[in-house]
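Each letter names a residue; structure tokens follow underneath. Both lines appear below:
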Amino acid sequence: MNNPASFLILLFLAITFLQSGYDKLFYWKDNLEWLKGHFSKTVLKNFVPLALAKILVLELASGVLAIVGMVQLLMNGDRIYGFYAAFLSCVTLLFLLFGQRLAKDYDGARTIVIYFVPAVLAVYWLN
């Protein structure tokens, strides 16, 4: 493996998105209830279940791709699945950022930026 930093960021993305996806999947009702309140004054108020489902799929796909990317890096040094994971992670985080900004949750949006920086670095390193 040529770039241990890439592996570590993929591990970071896998942990982040698989844990978040797990939480959404197994605590769907609690998440949905909270998000309905969070987005009650936005254009998303009637689409919260659909938006949550889409975010769940994006997070799980990002996490699984990150694991596949780590395995690929270790096995043969290839980076394509890691790149896909990093890119999809960026897209997922942009969706989350959009939602936080729409809800005027600027502290939540700021937190997402913290996750976005290493994801963009991964896109750069794995390209």
Observations:
- Helices lie at 4-26, 28-38, 48-76, 80-102, 106-126.
